[in-house]
Design goal:
The chain has helices at 4-33, 37-63, 83-111, 114-144, 148-158. By secondary structure, it is mostly helical. The protein has one domain (4-159): Up-down Bundle (Ferritin), CATH 1.20.1260. Helix 1 runs antiparallel to helix 3, helix 2 (37-63) packs parallel to helix 5 and helix 4 (114-144) runs antiparallel to helix 5 (148-158). Bound molecules: MU-OXO-diiron (FEO).
Length: 168
């Protein structure tokens, strides 16, 4: 049985993951409106991954007998300056998510809640990958954003991303 404090933190994290999904969907919409459908696809897939993260936490909390309380999800921004602004905000957001997950791990360690610590290992690894990839895309978009031919190729590259559902 998970403690009320850890359950609250996981419930909050479910909300953060769902917010991230909305935020990335908003970014996807911005690129769709600019006919950069490959980059729009990248953020659409990212949005689906965030919902999958929320689902994983939902299932875990249920498995350990915590009460699931669904949060209000704030409206994400929809006005962005340019592609670099969006990719930079995506990286900043991933860094926030990492901090928030570390905070749950810290609390779980303090309580000797090894089940939650073990469960969150997957998320720690995922965040390392997400931050690395978000950081690479910031570098790449800065390289290509002022060159239409390069931006076209970058858009084609991101069109290849597909959502892969994972089990619990
Ligand atoms: Fe669920 Fe991108 O962190």
């Amino acid at each position: 049985m998970v403690s009320e404090r850890i359950a609250q933190l996981i419930n909050e994290q479910i909300g953060h993951e769902q917010y991230a999904a909305q935020y990335y969907l908003s970014m996807s919409a911005w690129f769709s409106a600019k006919d950069l459908d490959g980059i729009a696809n990248y953020f659409r897939v990212q949005s689906k991954e965030e919902l999958m993260h929320a689902d994983k936490m939902f299932d875990y909390l249920n498995d350990v007998g915590g009460e699931i309380i669904i949060s209000d999800i704030p409206k994400p921004p929809h006005l962005f300056e340019n592609p670099v602004d969006i990719f930079t905000k995506a990286l900043e957001h991933e860094r926030k998510v990492t901090k928030s997950i570390f905070n749950i791990v810290k609390s779980a360690n303090e309580e000797g809640d090894f089940a939650t610590t073990a469960f969150l290992q997957w998320f720690i690894t995922e965040q390392v990958e997400e931050e690395a990839s978000a950081s690479q895309y910031v570098t790449k978009i800065k390289m290509v954003c002022d060159n239409p031919s390069a931006l076209y190729l970058f858009d084609q590259e991101l069109a290849q991303r597909v959502f892969v559902a994972e089990g619990k």
